Amino acid sequence: MLFSPSGFSECLREWEDLERDYQHIQDTHRLYKQKLEEVTKLQDSCSGAIARQRKKLKELTVSLEECKENHPTTKLSPEDVDAIAGMEGSIRERADAFSEMEAFLPKKNGLYLTLVLGNVNVTLLNKLSKFAYKDEYEKFKLILTVILFVFSFTCRFLFSYRALDALFNFLLVWYYCTLTIRESILITNGSRIKGWWVFQHYLSTFLSGVMLTWPEGALYQMFRNQFLTYCLYQSFVQFLQYYYQSGCLYRLRALGERHNMDLTVEGFQSWMWRGLTFLLPFLFFGHFWQLYNSITLFKMFQLPECKEWQVAMCSCSYMVLFMGNFFTTLGVVYQKYMNNQDKSKNV
After folding, report:
1. pLDDT digit string (tens) for 122-178?
2. Exposed (0-12), middle (13-18) or buried (19+): which is 82, by Cβ within 10 Å?
3. Lowest CB count within 10 Å: 128, 193, 214, 272, which one?
4. Beta-carbon neighbour count of residue 18 at 10 Å?
5. What is the pTM of this model?
């Protein structure tokens, strides 16, 4: 193939432009690696400084407590007492400030994340990435809730195949297992999720795994429709919670009353008191359904023909779910009621 001189000159100019661009890319990448090393050093320096400051503040807190305990003998003046109170308030504020700082610093993974992911750093170092991951988590929950609703409806009313039931239970195992991993990453990045609402996902993963291994038989068929109807109701309630909690959280964040990394949960928390109390009957009904499942399975376990270990395991799991969900929700309601009573007395 022959090239004209003008065509070759144009190719040469284009190559020279590419060479300049390549040189620029190399310089930019070199600068990027340099800044990355600087950022790593700054992260280590900041983490070390915070750790040292925490240690000194802890020692100072102990010293202040000793001063207060020995107040009659040391004869502190009123000004000294006020100074101690001021320092204690500043120490608490500084602890909160350190927590905010550490949300943007690399930290060691917890035991669960270490077992699942190893020592991979999962800390997201800017607000945009944190919010994007949180929103992705919320969308994931919503999409899977809809899929689980449709799947449970199909298994309950359209098809009665053990293979399809097994696929549904496998989906539940994958869903809850994925939730536990994502929630652990979000907690590492500053999300404040109450302990029970995280633990119930571990328990739900175990429960779904046990249901997956339950072999076909008369006892499985006895419990099947009740289980699928419960899953159908649970998916409906979870959709309600996501829809209304996300709107409530958006309003409270705009007012500065909630943390930007707060999440929707499958339960009731104190911030939901304004505007979301209508969800409580749905939640309590679901909690007592878990108790009903536990009692049903316990009665099945007492039958002479019961040979499957899954019956007892599922019964215990549903009982723990009921107790955890019911008493956690009841505790939130009681605490909020008492707070409102105290406010009314002060007024």
Report:
1. 887 777 787 788 888 888 888 999 999 999 999 999 988 899 999 999 999 999 999
2. exposed
3. 128
4. 10
5. 0.76
Give the CA angle between residues 122, 128, 129 to the nearest 5°: 20
The per-residue pLDDT for range 268-305, each reduced to its tens digit, is 444 444 555 677 888 889 999 999 999 999 999 999 88
